[in-house]
Amino acid sequence: MNAYVGELERTTTFKEKIRKQPENINAGLLTYPVLMCADIIIHNADKVPVGKDQEQNLEMARKFARRFNHMYGVEYFNMPEPYNFGEDLVKVPGLDGTGKMGKSEGNGIYLSDDPKEIRKKVMRAVTDEGPQQPNSPMTEPVANLFYLLELLSAPDIVDHFRNSYNDCSIRYGDLKKQLAEDVINFTTPIRERIEENYNDEDYLRKVVKMGAEKARESASKTVREVREILGYKPF
Predict the structure, then answer these.
(1) Which residues are catalytic?
(2) What is the DSSP string of 81-112?
(3) Given 5, 30, 74, 134, which residue has the most CB atoms within 10 angstroms?
(4) Which CATH class is domain 115-198?
(5) 3-class DSSP state of 46
C-alpha cells in the first residue's frame, strides 16, 4: 500500500466534508487525494494548476510520489508543485459568507454566467447589518466580499469601500453593484470564448481527440515504466 487510511482520514477536506454531510460519508470522500495524486503522477507532472484549498492534497501527492521512490529505491516520480499566474495560491470565498466558492456548495459564480446572472448572484451575497463603530473588525461574510473586491477591482475602488466601511458610511448595495460589474468585466472575454468554442463542434472534436491521444501516450509510458520498476515482465 502506498496510501494509508489514517493519513487520509486526517486531511482537512475529508474532515470538513464529514462535518457538513455526516449522513453521506463514503469512500469517494476518503480516497479523493489518492485519485488526485493518480491524475497527477500518471503524467509525472512538474506543475499542477490548483487553488489554495487543494494545497494539502497536492502535498499528499508529493508524499505518495516520494514514498514510491523510497520504497523501490528510484528517483522516478517528480515532486509536483502548485502553479498559478501569481505569487500566492488563491482560495476564492463563496457568496454565502463562508468557506470557498464551489459548484457543490452552490455559492459560486461560473465563468459561463451571463451579466444578468452574475448581478443576481452578487446582489444576493450574504452581508451583515453594517459596522456600528468606526474601524470595526469585519464579519466573515463582509471580509469575503472585500477579498473578492481585492481580487478583481482597482486599488482605488478597494480603498474607497474600505474607508467607507471604517467610517461606517458604507452601503453594501453599492459595494455589490461595483463588485458585480468588476466580475462581469473579468469574465466576459472568457465567457465569449467559451460560447465561441461551444458552438464550434469541429474544434471541440479536434481538442478532445488530441487531448485523449496525448493523455493516453503519457499515461501509457508511466504505467509501462512503473511496471518495470515493480518487476513485472513486459508482454
Answers:
(1) 17, 100, 103
(2) EEE-SSSS---PBPTTSSSB--TTTT----TT
(3) 30
(4) mainly alpha
(5) coil
Average the pLDDT over 104-129 and give the result.
Answer: 91
**227 CB-side CA count, 13 A:** 10
Closest CA to 41 of 69, 73, 10, 11: 69
Hey, which bits of the chain come out as E strands?
47-49, 81-83
Q: Select the CATH number that applies to the domain covering 1-91 from these four: 3.40.50.620, 3.90.1150.180, 1.10.3860.10, 3.40.50.1820.
A: 3.40.50.620
**pLDDT value of residue 66:** 93
Quote the cell numbers at residue 194: 467559451
Beta partners for 48?
Answer: 82
Question: Distance (Å, rounded) from C-alpha 80 to C-alpha 207?
Answer: 25
Beta-bridged to residue 49, according to DSSP, are 83
